[in-house]
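Lecture 7 notes: from sequence to structure.

We start with a single chain of 370 residues. Read the sequence below before looking at the structure.
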Amino acid sequence: MKLMATCKLGLESLVTRQLRDLGIEVLETADARVTFSGGAEAMVRALLWLRTAERVLLIVDEFDAETFDQLFERTKAVDWKRYLKPETNIHVTGKSAKSTLFSVSDCQSIVKKAIVESLKTGYRRAAIPEGGDEIIVEVGILRNRVSLCLDCCGAGLSRRGYRTYNVAAPLSETLGAAIVLLSRFKADVPLVDPMCGSGTMPIEAAMIAQNIAPGLLRTFAAENWWFLDRGVWKMERERAADERTDRKIIVRGYDIDGRSIDLCKKHAKKAGVFCDWQVRDVRDFSAAEPSGIIVVNPPYGERMLEKEEAKSLYREMRRVFSAYPGWSVNVFSGMREFESVYGRRADKRRKLTNGGMPCTLYQYFGVRDA
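Now the structure, written as tokens:
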């Protein structure tokens, strides 16, 4: 099978590395997506283990189309009987960029009609009743290149299953994991998030350190696909469960809001990890260890705090973090003038997005990393 892992712009290299670490063959890395190949085992493994991808899609066909007639005929020519039963509830999603076929709703309608016609022919039926299991078909068009895919996920990969409550402006699990990985976190290194909100980054760090597959707590749309061997799911889930370790880790989450810390404890318990949670103001940050990693996603002055309040907070962060030169600092912010406010140029910057907002991960390496 040929598959595609989609991701946020800037995270393609992380997804590529994760796939290769899983022993999966990577075919191509492009903007916001990585294509790979393999059997059902590779697909299930990717779904269970990918920490920074947004979705995994099974590519059914790819072709060029500049008109709706071409889109219809090429879609109809696909042997949809291989994937869909006559009673399948077909749900078509779509996206289009830089294409003559710019009307996404029209493309969705045409693709669904073409699939139904293909199934009528394949099953020799006059009508196709829709009352069975839902399968999501995605039509993606970029520069007149069409990809027809089956969505393996259902809910996106960020829905790990452990976060049932939210705070204001929560960080997605996939983005939280990406920031932790980009911070160069290792299982034997202390990590602290001094403004942890609902606990995403500490929990993701603990799952990384203890080698917990992020997809173990949830189900996937592809588990209901009739053409896949259900035994593969059982085998890969058991394998993933066996690969968990119980090594001792130092992962801490602080927040000034006691209600947030209560949520963190609930989320960590559901995720099956233990972190040290404390109600503490970032201005009172302290660390007993000579070195470690700080990850923080402070307010940007856009939604939660006014800009001047955010700037004052950034200056305080610089003051308290500077007292620990052995610690690396990783600040994820959407404030364009962050460095001038913080008072120090970053050693490294990584451009990312958060909820569609352009953001940057500013990294300041500790003495041990210099």
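The CA atoms of residues 211 and 243 lie 7 Å apart. Keep this in mind for problem set 3.
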